[in-house]
Design goal:
Order of helices and strands: HEEEEEEEEHEEH
Mean pLDDT: 82
Number of helices: 3
Strand content: 15-25%
Radius of gyration: 38 Å
Shape: elongated
Largest sheet: 6 strands, antiparallel
Distance between the termini: 158 Å
Number of strands: 10
Low-confidence stretches: 205-216
Helix content: 10-25%
């Protein structure tokens, strides 16, 4: 065999070996296919370690976090306790229950009402002025302030001759008093949002945002828990007085551990125009003498 032919044969064998090695390296390299994502089968779940009564603000020691299978979790259960600490529960939460969004929600729609043993439930209709902007929610505590106008306390004089009674006009006999303290709200009812219409009068398409316009001008029905004597006071105030509800802090009704306690009733004397003048220094109107020209 000639020397040149032998050289060509060696070069061919070398190129074949290089090609073989290249193919082997390519086929044996890392797999570039997209990895299959792992399937989540469990999530952290916030659990109550004790009963949390209605109206109590949640504390860290009331909670624990456990990993729960997806099929055993509530759809809106919380995964992080920081999301609920400090929030007020709007329904009773029992020990071992998963905390979810509905525990802290009051939409002003009632499907059931739990009345405490020995108590009565009564409804008070308020508006945005007398009901703290209609922001009172289930579980809150409220005080009732009633105002009685002057016509309920008429000042009269007795005629000694014929024993007739004459009402003295021009005197302010209005009286205001905080009558019931520490009533817990068992539920609230809000009217449905007013439907919006287009310029042509057709219903407008929903925007995805809740409406704050109420069909009854911002009214709210607040259902409170009262004793039998308080129910009588409340009914009297509804007939002859003007009622306002004052919102209380939930901290007034729990001990340092978060357990419900009876709040000491707020003691007040009430207020009249005379008290405003004598105690608070409200100024009396000054009489102005008008000099009329001679006729």
């Amino acid at each position: 065999m000639k020397r040149s032919n032998r050289l060509v044969l060696l070069v061919g064998i070398f190129l074949a070996v290089v090609a073989f090695v290249g193919i082997a390296v390519t086929l044996g390299g890392p797999n570039n296919a997209t990895p299959t994502p792992s399937v989540v089968t469990a999530l952290n779940t916030v659990i109550a370690v004790q009963d949390i009564p209605l109206g109590v603000a949640v504390k860290a020691e009331m909670l624990k976090t456990e990993s729960r299978p997806i099929n055993e979790r509530k759809a809106s259960a919380f995964t992080n306790p920081e999301l609920v600490i400090g929030q007020v529960v709007r329904r009773k939460v029992t020990a071992g229950a998963q905390l979810d969004a509905l525990d802290f929600t009051d939409q002003g729609v009632l499907t059931r009402l739990d009345v405490p043993a020995g108590k009565l439930a009564m409804a008070i209709q308020v508006d945005q002025v007398s009901g703290v902007g209609t922001l009172i929610k289930t579980g809150d505590y409220v005080d009732m302030v009633v105002g009685l106008t002057g016509d309920k306390f008429p000042v009269v004089t007795l005629n000694p001759q014929d024993k007739s009674i004459t009402v003295v006009a021009g005197l302010n006999s209005t009286s205001v008093k905080l009558l019931i303290s520490g009533m817990q709200v068992l539920g609230t009812l809000l009217p449905p949002p007013a439907p919006t219409t287009t310029a042509e009068g057709a219903p407008a398409a929903p925007s995805g945002q809740p409406s704050t316009a109420l069909t009854t001008g911002g009214l709210e029905m607040v259902i409170v828990s009262v004793t039998a004597p308080q129910a009588e006071i409340l009914k009297f105030a509804q007939i002859d007085g003007s009622i306002s509800l004052a919102l209380r802090s939930p901290a007034d009704f729990v001990d340092p551990s978060g357990n419900p306690v009876l709040s000491i009733p707020v003691a007040t004397k009430g207020i009249t125009l005379k008290e405003l003048v004598d105690i608070y220094g409200v100024l009396r109107p000054q009489l102005v003498e008008a000099i009329l020209p001679a006729q």
